[in-house]
Amino acid sequence: MALVNYERDGQVVTLTLNRPEKLNAFSDELVGVLGDALHRFDTDDEAQIAILCGNGRAFSSGADVQQRQLRSREEFLKLGGPQGRGTHSADLLTKAVNWKPVIAAAHGYVLGLSVGIVLECDLIVAEEGTQFQITETSRGLGAGKYWALMHYRGGGAFTMEAALTGRFFTAEEAHKANLINRVAPKGKYLEVARDLAEQVLKNPPLSVRSTVRMRRHYMDRLSREVMFMGAPERLYLSEDFQEAARAFAEKRKPAKFKGR
């Protein structure tokens, strides 16, 4: 079974995360396969725009905690964080050749790492009632990157609230805060994303790509500055992070956090 399904209909490619039994949680392998699928789209002469969605009950539950957040201290030190070598999700949309636009079409849940992937897409559609959450806050990791991406989209005061509380927020709240482009009726998120894609396709493709390239450059520069600032903290080595990850895996409440 392919971890990402690639389907082209005319000039529109649909990329479907296909790990539904894990709510499309991002393992190192899934990040790598999605990167390959995005490169295939980027270099597909017949494709001009892509829609990224998830199979099953959710777009994605975020990082695969069992694999990426329960590594040994030695692994964290070798890798420089929870991600595996060459599987940093921040690289997915910034290693393009042709800079074709990508629309995120989300439903169900968009949690943790997948919030970043959605925000990095050029346009965003979410089904009504979709639940977003920056889980890094409660897991002992910094939410600076997510704050930067939401701030870049014009999220205003809502940006800091979402990053500091780590609470769930809905597609409707995200739309009100200018974080997403469309809220789709139940069961219609792919249809709405396709309609948005068709509007983009009415324009000359090179002018569209020029705009995408410029936007991604500034978005990437901002988010990488934030990650560079946070890197020396190495929060993935903290006791609080380790306790939060174990508690999640063991389906229990974490012990009192110690601030170390």
TrEMBL record:
SUPFAM superfamilies (alphabetical): ClpP/crotonase (SSF52096)
An example Gene Ontology molecular-function term: catalytic activity
InterPro entries associated with the record: ClpP/crotonase-like_dom_sf, Enoyl-CoA_hydra/iso
Pfam families the record matches: ECH_1
Family that this chain belongs to: Belongs to the enoyl-CoA hydratase/isomerase family.
PANTHER family linked: ENOYL-COA HYDRATASE, IP11341P-RELATED
Name under which the protein is recorded: Enoyl-CoA hydratase
Organism name: Reyranella soli
Gene name of the encoded protein: paaG_1
